[in-house]
Each structure stands twice: as structure tokens, then as C-alpha cells.
Amino acid sequence: MATTVLAVRHQVRRHATAVDAALVYVGLRVVSTAVILLGQRDQPAVTGLSRAPYLGMVSHWDGQWFRSIALSGYPRHLPHDLAGAITMNQWAFYPGFPFMTRAVMQGTDTGFAAAASLLDLVCGLVAAIAMARLLETRIPRTAALSMVGVWAALPMAPSLQLGYSEALALALLSLTLLWLQRERWGRAAVAALLLGLTRPMLPPLAVVFGVAVWLRWRRRVDDPLAPAERRRMVAGLLATLAGSALWPATAWWVTGVPDAYSRTEAVWHHGSMAPFAGLAALHPVVWHGHVLWLRVAVLAALGVCAALTVVAVRSPRIDPLLSTWCLAYLVFDAAVGNMHADEFRLLLPLFPLVAVACGVASTTLATRWRERAGLGIALGIVGQYAWVMLCVRFLPGVPRAP
């Protein structure tokens, strides 16, 4: 009887957490909608960009590429300029988001912007709920929900509403981490493989999968491993490791060019895909004064995240899998990122660091953690306006794609 009552209470609490996390997330998305509308008010007229309220700005920048993929798919031959160099093309963008958006377009009979917005909302809700459940295993429920609020209010959070793959990728990432935390190896592997077709994020996630397997193996004496579970663990880890090659292999198969994906991606990285090339290229800020503030802001953001990650690794309230994710992803991002304006939204997957910054990751919660969370939300909303005005608005001749 007592066991049944506890199970019911646990189920009720899980549902309450899901509902509350969803409400928090939707509330912040309403705020971001207002911010995007304010930004669009000052959007200059540009040929090829929609002037429709809100939905017009959803399709800016990379949204144009995703829209092209959703409508027309991928080219069978890599495009070249007159000099024979590969030019920017759709193969740099993974298919998960545009193909799912196409399915929503067909199911709802709407255009790309509306379908992408609907998909973003659903995926963002899934991500927020999974994050809350991940955090509340070691952090009080109220604090965990507050952290979801701070994360959803970050300056780059409006990207969760654009025609980008952010919301879908974060939903798959958070589900993978949640299922790894609960040692549901098969589900985690499936979510990871889907993520491998949505964003290039599997290398650091494979590290987390490996740590989860090691932690389970270490308990085998007190909690014996059944042969079936052992097979699921190994198969899931191998699938996650191999998942990183899915999209490059697909690009090779379709185009006939073995390095089609990497050569296309190199176009966005000024021809270099060498590890940490983005950081190595930061020295031109000395003479490119017009981007000095942006490069300094990128370095500052990375520095803050690195400091918070160090604390997270030693925190008793951050699950080891989450701290491993932060460490592995931060190193991976520094190695492959181009360190431009889009770097800010690429930091969104580091959601556990919000708990460290707000003082809820230590053994004893910070006395003023609620004030920190409130301040974080307020500053984040102000930052959203700056981010939309500086990066999301399309200003001809100003290359600051978010």
C-alpha cells in the first residue's frame, strides 16, 4: 500500500513538473515574440525577405537555407563558382529540422515560417520539460523550474523560435541525457541517432554515453548487469559513436564526393576546418575594428562558460552526466566553432551552467538564489532585444548571422 501511494505521488509530481516547466517556457516565448516584433519594426526592406509580422523574421539568415531544403531538398551535385571552388550550399545543414518542418507543412497546409514556428514550440516544450526533470533529481523542484526560466530567457533564446534547428536539437539532446540518467540505453541511442541527423553534436554526447556506461559498469557488483542490458549499453554506445558519420556519409552517397560535407562546411569557416581554427583566427580583431566588440563578447562568453564548467564538475548538485556534457561540449564547440555571432546560440546546450550561475548547484543553496534567478531573467530579456536588433535583423552589408 505504501509503495503504491509513493508511486502515485511520484507520478503526480512528475506531471506537475511537466506542466509548470511548460508554463514557464511558454511565458518566456511570449516575451521573446514581443521582442522579435519590436526588432522587425526596424527591419529595413530587403529584396527576398518577407515583411509579414513575426513570421517574416523567423525565416532570416539560416532560415532561408532550411526553407530551401524543406521545399526542394538537397542538390545532387556540389555547386562551384567560376574559379572552381565549392560555394555555399544546402549540404552544410542537417536534414532533421527541414524535413520535419516539411511534414508539418504538409499536415497543416501552412508555409515554412508557420510550420517551423509550430515545430519549434513543441520541441522547445519537450526540451524544457526534460531539462526540469534532469535538474530536479538533485536540485529542489522550485529551483529547477526557475533554472528553466533563466535558460529560456537567455539573450540568444529567441533562436528557439526562428527557422533554425535549435529547438529540435535541444529536445533530442535533453531527452538523450534524461534517458542516459535513467539508464534507458535503447531510447537514449535512438534519440542520439536522430540528433546526429539534426545537428553536429554527437562527438561530445558520445563521451557522455561512455561515462554513463562506465558508471553503470562500476555498480555491477552491487547491482548485477544482465546480459541483455550489457548488450543494449554497448550497442547504444557504438551507435552514438557511429552516428557522427551518418550525415557526411549521406552527402558522399548522394553527391559522389567523399568529402562533400566537410568541403561544404569549410566554406562557412573561410576554408579551414582545422581544430580550434576559430580561436586561432581571433587575432584579426586588432585591425578589424568593426567586429572587435563582437569577438570580445564571444571570448568573454566562452570564458564565463569555462569558469562555470569548472565549478559544475565539482558540484554535488549537478549530475556527473550533465557536468561531463558541459565539459565535453565546451571543448568540442571551441574546436569547431567559427567564433562569430552564431557562437552565442551555440552555447544554449550548456543549460546546466545556469544552475551554477544562480547559486543552486552547491551543497547549500545560495541565500539569494531567487534574486539571482530573477535578475538573470530580467537581464536576459534586455539582452534578447540587443541580440535581435544586432544579429537577427538583416542589415545589408552587416554579416552578423545569429
Question: How would you characterize the overall build of this protein?
Answer:
- There is one protein chain.
- The chain has 17 helices and no strands.
- The protein has 402 residues and is mainly α.
- It has one domain.
- Helix 4 crosses helix 5.
- The longest helix has 40 residues.
- About 2% of the residues have low confidence.
**Structure annotation, total helices:** 17
As for the number of domains, it is 1
- Helix share, percent: 55-70%
Share of β-strand residues? under 5%
Spans of 5+ residues with little confidence (pLDDT < 50)?
Answer: 283-290
For the biggest sheet, the summary is: none
Instruction: Give the averaged pLDDT, no decimals.
Output: 89
> What is the rounded Rg?
21 Å
Number of strands: 0
The coarse silhouette is globular
Gap between N and C termini: 55 Å
SSE succession: HHHHHHHHHHHHHHHHH
**Class by helix and strand content?**
mainly alpha
SSE blueprint and pairings:
Elements (H helix, E strand, L loop, with lengths): L1 H40 L13 H4 L3 H11 L23 H13 L3 H24 L5 H12 L13 H16 L3 H11 L6 H17 L8 H17 L2 H10 L4 H9 L8 H4 L11 H22 L6 H17 L15 H6 L11 H24 L10
Short description:
This protein has 402 residues and is mostly helical.
List keywords for this structure.
402 residues; mainly alpha
